[in-house]
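Hi support team,

I submitted a single chain yesterday and got back a structure, but I'm not sure I'm reading the token output correctly. Could someone confirm the output below corresponds to the sequence I sent? I've pasted both exactly as they appear in my results page.

Thanks,
R.
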Amino acid sequence: MRILIVEDSRRLRTYIRDAMTQNGYATDTASDGEEGLFLALSNDYDVIILDLMLPKLDGISLLRKLRSEGRKTHVLILTARDTVEDRVHGLEEGADDYLIKPFALEELLARVQTLVRRGYGLTTSTITVGTLILDTAMRTATRNGVRIDLTPREYALLEFLVMKRGQVVTRSEIESHIYDDRAEPMSNVVDSSIRRLRRKLDVPGEPSVIQTRRGMGYVLRVPSS
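Hi R., thanks for writing in. Yes, this is the structure output for that exact sequence:
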């Protein structure tokens, strides 16, 4: 999943970025409101983490402009402003959640994951697709009751396919949501990642969990009931 962090403190921005990357998120960062707005309108993010006290364009103005453009990206406001009036104002302008500085990293990660699930219409942390079970809170996957050993990036790829289960997902969608360094159009980075994931997920004698749609992309197979 792809996250945008708009925060003017370099230290905090780097801290959040590193934590998100270690947990398998692809991340972009901006140090001021104008850059943040440009990125938010130019890319498809799953969640935007937004500070309020920003140079060039404050967080509330950024949020207001984002919503006026019809963008429904979930926004988590991260700020030192802790009055009820500030929180209500942010929510009224279109924010989806609010976290006060200083904060616990575990809580930030949990809130981001909740917003990611909400963006895909999910209300629980566990997703079951046939014999495959994904726990988005623990960031683990099992099949037939056996835990699958996945790297953070492999988990992120599987999570994205599970969120879009039954739908064809193009290579460019995978690149933009999963990878920090955008792959060249002719690179095989996505194909290679899919092959590695299949080796870990598939059961001998059964159809592959991830199917290829030639010339289109990939789809996570949903077993018929």
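A quick pointer for reading it: The chain has a mean pLDDT of 88. Let us know if anything else looks off.

Best,
Support desk
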